[in-house]
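ok so heres the complex, two chains, lmk if somethin looks off
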Amino acid sequence: MAEALTPERILEATEDVLRRYGPGKATVVDVARALGVSHGSVYRHFRTKAALRAAVTQRWLDRTSEQLKSVVSGTGPAGQQLDRWLTTLFEAKRHKAGDDPELFATYTVLASEASGVVERHIEDSVGQLAQIIEAGRDEGEFAADAIGSAYEAARAVFHATARFHDPVYAAEWSRPGVEDDFLSVRSLVLRGLRR
Amino acid sequence: MAEALTPERILEATEDVLRRYGPGKATVVDVARALGVSHGSVYRHFRTKAALRAAVTQRWLDRTSEQLKSVVSGTGPAGQQLDRWLTTLFEAKRHKAGDDPELFATYTVLASEASGVVERHIEDSVGQLAQIIEAGRDEGEFAADAIGSAYEAARAVFHATARFHDPVYAAEWSRPGVEDDFLSVRSLVLRGLRR
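and the predicted structre for the whole thing:
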């Protein structure tokens, strides 16, 4: 009996097809062929090509979000959590960009088409940061009166560290000295949050 | 008698020509024609087309550096100077991008060709920041032991504020809320430097 056609299987196949043909050429028919099903079967799960591409982009971004979530749910002082969160984000992005540059470039194209998905991902990331900052304020480790609400402070931290997570800077992540630059910005930001 | 052909006149004419034809089409012959001279006369001042384009890029970047230099040589506590420096930089970039978007796009293309010129401009900017930070440390307003040397701290400040001066973010500078985002990052950075 054939394996059931789940959304997850379709998304996996889509990533393979995108890797093989590139974002410009990959079609829903290619995905269906790779799965040995009709393109109608794919469209039953994803109603348009754009929806399929947005879903595969979301899945790619979710992998990073999951790693970050485990930092937020971990224990330890807020300052340590923030350090770990920023480091995890930078490392995850660096790996994505460095381990498979072609796939990374492909997803950069997809992300530019699915701005809603990217915006939700950013909001989710800022929300995680806000949780850490809120906890640090409650514990008295971070200043409660600085830089507005925990959400505003979280946006500021996210923006201040953009060089180490925004894909526009991917070319910088393999340069010598980037680790030191990251540690300097991370210290600056953490000092800025402390009482 | 004809006006003397100075480098400055050539650079002015080059900017005009670039504005008119775009960076893809503008030639040295166009510049010479605009000045009513032979292209040989232009080449006597700038030996190659690349050298001319690099010089006009430098002139464009220097306009911002000059504005910033006057902040560094001004008086007042280092914290205030830093605020003013970052605000001046953001405002200068926003104006360049917003007042004449076509010329800004042209210079973005030119800057990508003249990476040496851009790197020197960035080093110059970081050097100005380091001067402010050094002074703030001497006066005891900034922590002397945080984030390494004044130069390292300056790099961190420059990187942390990239969203508000790096041309890759130019599209963000006209969005509602960008002012608040800037003020949040500026506060975060300043807090990070203080004792």
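quick notes: Chain A touches chain B at residues 143, 146-148, 152-153, 155-157, 159-163, 168, 180-181, 184-185, 187-193 (CB under 8 Å). thats all i got rn
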